[in-house]
Automatic annotation (TrEMBL):
EAL domain boundaries: 137-386
Domain Cyclic nucleotide-binding stretches: 1-106
Source organism, top-level taxon: Bacteria
Name of the protein in question: EAL domain-containing protein
Principal subcellular localization: cytoplasm
PROSITE patterns in the record: CNMP_BINDING_2 (PS00889), CNMP_BINDING_3 (PS50042), EAL (PS50883)
Localization (cell): Cytoplasm
Gene3D superfamilies: EAL domain, Jelly Rolls
PANTHER family: CYCLIC DI-GMP PHOSPHODIESTERASE PDEF, SIGNALING PROTEIN YKOW
Organism: Dokdonella ginsengisoli
């Protein structure tokens, strides 16, 4: 059987300084010495052994070899094609890629200086557009952290209407960020950025506190019955075993009944049935309701509804937009019947026209949310009856 590995004898040159970067190697056995010419003298930079990569830096930034690799003992190496690195680097997180290229650029400059070449411009690769994007992403993350610390994230309440009675039964809490220089940053952009890091957890705590404050103010202003406010949970928040305890602590601090806070879990997160089932059981024990959000967005699994006891299903707006077709009406009718059979409330999201609302009412859908019902409002606008 032909081996995938290559062998070098003691003293063999694996590659020499100045060679083109055709590929890298994984050292299976033996030891490799890395050296470079510094001010006319050969200097040993490192000594590599089994399990270590060899020659990957030149492959990553597609630069000539800046050092020589020589076998100190008989060695067995597994070649790694340059395309393998290129594919993985292209698929990597842009921030990780930018950090790697930044470190590599500094290494090249330092190595060039030690070798007597003091022209940094020859050794620092120009930033690619993807690097510029990554650096802007790093900058935006830092600015988001600062905005959170300064309390600059704003809360909006989008009304949810009880269709039969035509009254606002509750609201969904939405967080907004108006950047001092960039203007309004799309929620999808900064929430996705926060979810990529641990930043989503303090943002979740911030939103929870603001929601409790808004509920307390609605009660203080005599809003009866007190509407519920729904807030979305992220996957990182769901990983916290003390999440419900922390939520209950904030509700008690504001003397609020647990049933006025509704938790929303997006459909893509219910694949972890055990964790979600435990959360639902605990919430129901404490009197809190939980909604399955974005139902029908591509992760639909009726098994989730069979095993997870949600109090509410929120139908994705794509179904509402299809209500002008017989197929769309039929599918929404099935969802309405399913929700009724499971004793769940059904909220149709993205309701924008009276015709859509009329079809939903005829089908027996309980609640509607969307621009027809009302746009997201600041608390002051809600209190003023806008």
């Amino acid at each position: 059987m032909q081996s995938y590995s290559v062998r070098f004898r003691t003293g063999d040159i694996v590659f020499a300084e100045g060679d083109p970067p055709h590929g890298a190697f994984l050292i299976e056995s033996g030891r490799i010495e890395i050296s470079s010419s510094q001010f006319g003298e050969r200097r040993v930079l490192s000594n590599l052994g089994p399990g270590m990569l060899l020659g990957e830096m030149a492959v990553i930034d597609d630069s000539p070899r800046t050092a020589t690799a020589r076998a100190l003992t008989d060695c067995t190496l597994t070649p790694i094609d340059a395309r393998q690195f290129a594919e993985r680097l292209a698929a990597a997180d842009p921030i990780v890629r930018a950090l790697l290229m930044s470190q590599l650029s500094r290494y090249r400059s330092t190595l060039a200086t030690l070798s007597g070449d003091t022209s940094p411009s020859r050794h620092v690769a120009p930033a690619a557009s993807s690097d510029a994007f990554a650096l802007d992403k790093i900058r935006l993350e830092s600015e988001l952290r600062a905005a959170l610390d300064r309390g600059e994230l704003e809360m909006r309440l989008q009304p949810i209407e009880e269709i039969a009675g035509g009254r606002v039964a509750g609201y969904e809490a939405l967080v907004r960020w108006r950047h001092l220089q960039r203007g309004d940053v799309a929620p999808a952009e900064f929430i996705r950025l926060a979810e990529e890091t641990s930043l989503i957890v303090p943002i979740g705590d911030y939103v929870l506190e603001r929601v409790c404050e808004m509920l307390a103010e609605l009660r203080r202003r005599g809003r009866e019955p007190l509407p519920f406010i729904a807030l979305n949970l992220s996957s990182r928040q769901l990983e916290d075993p003390l999440l419900v305890d922390r939520i209950l602590a904030r509700l008690r601090a504001h003397e609020l009944p647990p049933d006025r806070l509704k938790l929303e879990i997006t459909e893509s997160l219910v694949l972890d049935h055990v964790r979600i089932a435990a959360l639902l059981a605990r919430c129901h024990e404490e009197g809190m309701h939980v909604a399955l959000d974005d139902f029908g967005t591509g992760y639909s699994n009726l098994g989730a509804l069979l095993t997870l006891n949600f109090d509410q299903i929120k139908l994705d707006g794509s179904f509402v937009r299809a209500l002008d077709t017989s197929r769309g009406v039929a599918l929404v009718g099935v969802v309405v019947a399913t929700a009724r059979a499971l004793n769940c409330d059904l909220v149709a999201e993205g309701v924008e026209t009276r015709a859509q609302r009329e079809v939903l009412q005829r089908l027996g859908c309980g609640y509607a949310q969307g621009w027809l019902v009302g746009k997201p409002l600041a608390l002051a606008e809600v209190l003023n009856g806008n």
